[in-house]
Amino acid sequence: MAAALSLAMIVVVILLSRLKYEIIWMTANFLDVVIINADTIRFLLAIKPDLFGKVLLALALVLPALTLLWWIDTFRMRLRTATVGFAGAPPRSLP
Predict the structure, then answer these.
(1) Residue 94 to residues 75, 80, 81: CA-CA distances in angstroms?
(2) Can you tell me the distance from the alpha carbon of 35 to that of 66, in angstroms, rounded to the nearest whole number?
(3) How does the average pLDDT of the chain come out, rounded?
(4) Average pLDDT in the 9-25 region?
(5) Would you call 53 helix, strand, or coil by DSSP?
(6) How far is it, in rounded angstroms, from Cα 71 to Cα 65?
(7) What pLDDT does residue 89 have?
(8) Which residue, 9, 57, 69, 75, has fewest beta-carbon neighbours within 10 Å?
(9) Can you say how many angstroms the Cα of residue 60 is from the centroid of all Cα atoms in its chain?
(10) pTM of this prediction?
């Protein structure tokens, strides 16, 4: 799951760079990726009206795929262990 999310993040950065290049003929740099906020998203959706549909389609395809990857993951942690780790309490014993 972590590898799939990392790959998705790299793909998003590449797609954002291509989108910026189409609009103002400059590629995205690190600062552009850090400063993506709600106003930037509204601006992009205003200039590229078909972008909203593409984002919804991408989410409709990616979320079930990530859910499937999570479901078939053989290295998945038990829910109780994950909850204890999330809460920050040290585990009582090793399984």
Answers:
(1) 16, 13, 10
(2) 26
(3) 77
(4) 77
(5) helix
(6) 10
(7) 62
(8) 75
(9) 13
(10) 0.51
